UniProtKB/TrEMBL annotation:
It holds the Pfam family DUF3243. This is DUF3243 domain-containing protein.
Length: 85
């Protein structure tokens, strides 16, 4: 089963990656830009595996670039306290 198929596992996976990036000294601006690039790639190239991802992809598809950055930043906030720590 892919990590993308379960929303909670996906959030934990992202949380682990975010924690790693922060521990390596990556600043918030770089993290924000990476989140935007990953969100853009997923929305355009990867089929949604669960209802939550479908909602995000649908929102992404109608959002302006500024709104897409906001969505990416909200995802970062959402997963900040997730992961295995």
């Amino acid at each position: 089963m892919s990590v993308l198929e379960n929303w909670d596992e996906w959030k934990n996976f992202l949380g682990d990656r975010l924690n790693h990036a922060e521990n390596e000294g990556m600043n918030g601006g770089v993290i924000s830009n990476l989140a935007f690039e990953i969100g853009d790639y997923l929305a355009k190239q990867v089929e949604s595996k669960n209802p939550q991802e479908k909602v995000l992809a649908d929102l992404w598809s109608v959002a302006s670039q500024e709104e897409q950055h906001a969505i990416a930043n909200m995802m970062v906030k959402l997963v900040q306290n997730n992961g295995s720590h």
